[in-house]
Design goal:
The chain is 18% helix and 25% strand. It contains five helices and 14 strands. Helix 1 links the parallel strand 1 and strand 2.
Length: 245
């Protein structure tokens, strides 16, 4: 069964939608490992490697975490088939080893064999601040992270900061309010599942809404959002294709 991991404070419409889409929902509950304001954030306790059918999930050891930055970011990495982005000096070595093994497992002989590009950045909350749209396309308001990705050949949509809630902080981040799921094909219900990016809240309230939606749809991915509550950072919506690493 498809698995989704998200905060216990995720919006009820989001939770209901994921359940209808066939996902088994695993809630991250309030705990004492990290700052209580973000202690239900899935992307602090695990790292998703890859997107959709290639996705694997590394489950971290919460005992390695701490309440202060950068003790809380050792698993908050951004990982697609082509890029691994994080504050490398703080990355958990076990996660790095698992990432390389996962990368080998999804790269076949008949495909390109270029190694994953490991990019060190100063932004420890790499997964929170950046939303991967596909393996080489990203959305972020973080200028430094955007520059680092673009320098390695990625395509980045830079948006304005703010307009995303994160209780206890000035604002939240685009990566922290979204995730990758499959939905029924919109044009052909009998057809193969369609790739989608789902948001916790009303994406249309974001000042860069049209640019974000156009960027996502241009890659044949469907945006899903909910118009009855504000866009809120919940520490990402992580999913996997049935394998923990």
């Amino acid at each position: 069964m498809k698995q989704a991991y998200l905060s216990e404070w995720a919006g009820k419409p989001l939770v209901s939608y994921l359940a209808r889409a066939g996902y088994n929902i695993n809630f991250i509950r309030q705990n004492n490992y990290v700052d209580p304001r973000i202690s239900t954030h899935a992307d602090l306790f695990m790292c998703q490697f890859g997107l959709w059918d290639e996705a694997g999930l590394f489950i971290g050891d919460p005992e390695k975490l701490g309440p202060l930055y950068p003790q809380d970011i050792i698993y908050n990495a951004l990982c697609t088939r082509d890029f691994f982005v994080h504050m490398i000096t703080e990355s958990d070595p076990d996660m790095m080893e698992a990432m390389l093994l996962w990368r080998e497992s999804v790269t076949h002989e008949d495909e390109y064999t270029e190694q994953v590009k490991v990019i060190g950045v100063s932004q420890g909350y790499s997964r929170c601040t950046c939303l991967p749209v596909d393996d080489r396309s990203f959305i972020t308001a973080d200028a430094g992270l955007a520059s680092a990705l673009e320098s390695q050949g990625a395509v980045v949509l830079k948006i304005r900061p703010g307009s995303i809630l994160l209780p206890g902080f000035d604002y939240g981040f685009i990566g922290g309010c979204a995730g990758h799921i499959y939905i029924d094909h919109l044009e052909d219900p009998a057809g193969p599942p369609q790739r989608a990016i789902i948001f916790n809240g009303d994406l249309s309230r974001h000042p860069d809404f049209e640019r974000i939606v156009d960027f996502i749809r241009s890659r044949n991915i469907h945006p899903v959002y909910f118009d009855n509550y504000p866009l809120e950072d919940i520490g990402s919506i992580l999913s996997m294709a049935g394998r923990e690493l």
